[in-house]
UniProtKB/TrEMBL annotation:
InterPro entries: AMP-bd_C, AMP-bd_C_sf, AMP-binding_CS, AMP-dep_synth/lig_dom, ANL_N_sf. Coiled coil: none annotated. This is Acetyl-CoA synthetase-like protein. GO terms for molecular function: CoA-ligase activity. PANTHER family: BCDNA.GH02901, LONG-CHAIN-FATTY-ACID--COA LIGASE. It comes from Gymnopus androsaceus JB14. Residues 41-407 form the AMP-dependent synthetase/ligase domain. Residues 458-547 form the AMP-binding enzyme C-terminal domain.
Amino acid sequence: MSELYCPSRSPCDWEELLQVPEDTSLPRFMLDSYHPLKPQQGTPCLVEAHTGRKISINELRSRTAALASALYTQYSIGEGDVVMICSPNHVDYPIIVWAVHSLGGIVTLSNPQYTKHELLQQARLTRATLLILHSSVLDAISSDIAHLGVPSSRIISLGKRDRLWNYTIEGLIERAEHRKNPVDHSVSVGGDRVALLALSSGTTGAPKAVKLSHRGLIVNILQMAAHIKRSGNKGFSPGDVALQTLPFFHVAGFVLGLHLCLFLRMSVVVTEQYDFIRMLEDIVRFNVTTLVIVPPQAISLCKHPATNYFALNSLKKIFIGAAPVSAELQRSVATAIPNAQVGQLYGLTEASCTLTMTHGSYSSPGSVGQLLPGTEAQVVKLDGTLAGFGERGELYIKTPSVALGYLDNIEATNETFRNDNWIRTGDEVLITKNNEIFVFDRVKDVLKVRGFQVTPAELEGHLLEHSDVLDAAVIGIPHSYNGQVPFAFIVLRETAEQLINGEEHDYDGAVVLKTDILKYVSDRTAPYKRISGLEFVKSIPKTSSGKVLRRTLRKSWEKSKAKL
């Protein structure tokens, strides 16, 4: 296999279908533009799960225009300005994004579990000048607002009204809607202009801001829509209902869970906080037909006893993504929900979201499916030669939805985005003769914890800040629920090492120190990044150039586990 194209690539009509006018922005595409892949019937809407309130496409359009007017008038948001949104899923999420885009601005989406340190890091990295924070985030970091690097006058609350904040999203929309003779400040900015700065680690290193364009995001929506239309996937037709369990700040939730479903004239049920029992209740309550979930949620569907107490026969399609899923787990989900097609999908932030999807009925369990229209693949072996069918190697992808690179990071851009727009994925895969792709593991060291990326380098940085730590390395170890969790190897400073390993070996002291180090890191990171355990060692194995030999550390961990 020298190069694999999407199935039925020959003069198929995908080239014409994926054409996007240069001046088409994401909101214009979603709210106003015609496209042959967009169904002309059906009433897409958002549904607020906890109230049952429905927001029609017309209301989305009017609220977007009102908020855009307010952001321009009150904050002078315009072309190239970066607005950071930090919130759990919310029905106003797309309205905020589209309002900023309508003015030519750029959004960056942040995890509401982030600490003040992580929020500040993202704000600085992306050069955000306006922050829109959910009220729950404001409550959690209220004492640290001054340290976010943005004046409090440029922080807007999303959610409940709060006397401490001059402006809320709802208040801005209401003021704009009541303004006489409103002026349309929207601009025709689309094409290859940056729409979203999405955080990603790439294939290695600290978090980076991926520059996703309007065109790239739109093309990926069209690629998925074209694949679904031809592949027999149920659950993506007008009138179908998707329950959004993926977070909107994650590119999969943002592009697939939100934009694709609305584009296909579906209804999207929005829940602010994920809870498994509540998810089952909402499936029944709203007659949900479509779920896109991550492996931990798939495990719960199979193993949680509550699954048997709910009638989930409305489900037509379950897609599992964000991390590799075994054939066994996929079969177990299909057994637990027999009425639904169960498949997988695979993607990258650097490709705007999705690269592969399974077909409706004939994909092999464990496969992430076939390439989306317009996508090409190569599998490269360790020696640099191209792999054949059935041979493992690193996956390289070429797609018209490719990102524009990493913000202010030429070295990382050149490492991931190769000549002729080939993306180095960092994933070990094989491709079968019937063009199905199987993903096995990360070639590099980025961990996938519950579908979220965790970089060892970031955690190692926190560990090295601890006063008793001399050196540190982090690996991923298997976990039945999370997929992977971080585990640390620590070289202590001499004073601390003598304290716990001296003549008066202090076992309790070692336990206390481990607890203190773990707490030090957990206080500075989101919950999914927390280190599961650590081991004190004499040295960290490294190459002559200073790179950590993580494979050696993994073998060490496996040996110690085998002795238990």
